[in-house]
Amino acid sequence: MEGQPMLMIPGPTPVPEQVLRAMAKPPIGHRSGDFSKVIAEITANLKWLHQTQNDVVALTVSGTGAMEAGIINFFSPGDRVLVGDNGKFGERWGLISKAFGLNVDIIKAEWGKPLNPEEFRAKLEQDTEKQIKGVIITHSETSTGVLNDLETINKYVKAHGEALIIVDAVTSLGAVNLPIDEWGLDVVGSGSQKGYMIPPGLGFVSISPKAWKAYETATIPKFYLDLGKYKKATDKDSSPFTPPVNLMYGLQVALQMMKAEGLDKIFARHQLTTKATRAAMKALNLPLLAPDEYASTAVTAVMPTTVDAEKIRGTIKKQFDISLAGGQDHLKGKIFRIGHLGFVSERDILTVICALETTLVELGYEGATPGAGVAAASQVLAQS
């Protein structure tokens, strides 16, 4: 019997029925007074979610588009930047930076391991002439399930004084505490299909006063992604270009739902589902790629050793219509990733673990007693 497909990947994430209903409304003119009210409400709630009084703008792009905008608006060709690379997306920001003529200094870590904040400290302290203009960090590295120590790295950036910190929060915004104003983060990019609980198509960028000052002298060419245009329009409850009206309807409702739940409860829910997922994998003797102390609250990467990762993904999709994510680049075929980001509940976690156990039995896995994963996850959830 065909049922509702179940997305347990780090994006796109499940979309609540209320959001889907909102998106089904007839569109209205994006220059109308009624739509200006929608933009005004969305802008206020985006600032709430970002924990900032700074500007937050919405772009009709993916998370990559938001990050590209966050890079090109504040630098000039030849500017030196440090880029943290411990996964697919850190690698991508380095490639984008090079594409726009920046002088890129890569600080690497093995995929599955966190970036070392001390390597950033050493580079920044050595820069006595203040040639480093920016530090670009992926907070939650989606490809590996690692949460980097952004807070510590940011402290070293602040001690440097000159450099901006540019943050990829695509799978951390709305999933883990990210106090933008408290930490003094300059540019933070994110995407709608993650913690925002709506489909792909919108990117968001928060911008500090320090970043706007850098914007005034930045010379990388830009037009559609010129954040100055977005600020000017957003200040008037408008948009510089045609926005996805129905997606904005969905965002309006999703942010209302998030505000009703509250930030503390949102973060606690993500922590709980992460702990339950990881406890289940350990009980099933399925090795985890990222260490507990640096585990992303968006996605858990699992590296099975005696059963094929792609067979697990294929079987659970065929038998239960549950989508798990695979590995990327050299991890392709070696890991599978369970998303627990956005509109994901305790029931969803228990469902996917139960289906995974059945899948493992079907594939002949003998590494654990059937039911051990569900029991371990249930124990974590019962203690909440």
Structure overview:
43% of the residues lie in helices and 15% in strands. The strands form three sheets. Strands 2-10-9-8-5-3-4 form a seven-stranded mixed sheet, sandwiched between helices. Helix 1 packs antiparallel against helix 10 and helix 5 packs parallel to helix 6. It is α/β, with parallel strands linked by helices. The protein folds into two domains: 244 residues, 3-Layer(aba) Sandwich (Aspartate Aminotransferase, domain 2), CATH 3.40.640; 120 residues, Alpha-Beta Complex (Aspartate Aminotransferase, domain 1), CATH 3.90.1150. The protein has 14 helices and 13 strands. The mean pLDDT is 97.
How are the SSEs ordered, and which strands pair?
Elements: E1 6-8, H1 17-23, H2 33-50, E2 55-59, H3 63-72, E3 80-85, H4 88-99, E4 103-108, H5 117-126, E5 132-138, E6 140-141, E7 146-147, H6 150-160, E8 164-168, H7 180-183, E9 187-191, E10 203-207, H8 209-215, H9 227-234, H10 245-261, H11 263-283, E11 299-302, H12 309-320, E12 322-326, E13 336-339, H13 346-362, H14 372-382
Parallel strand pairs: 1-12, 3-4, 3-5, 5-8, 8-9
Antiparallel strand pairs: 2-10, 6-7, 9-10, 11-13, 12-13
Helix pairs in contact: 1-10, 2-10, 5-6, 11-14, 12-13, 13-14
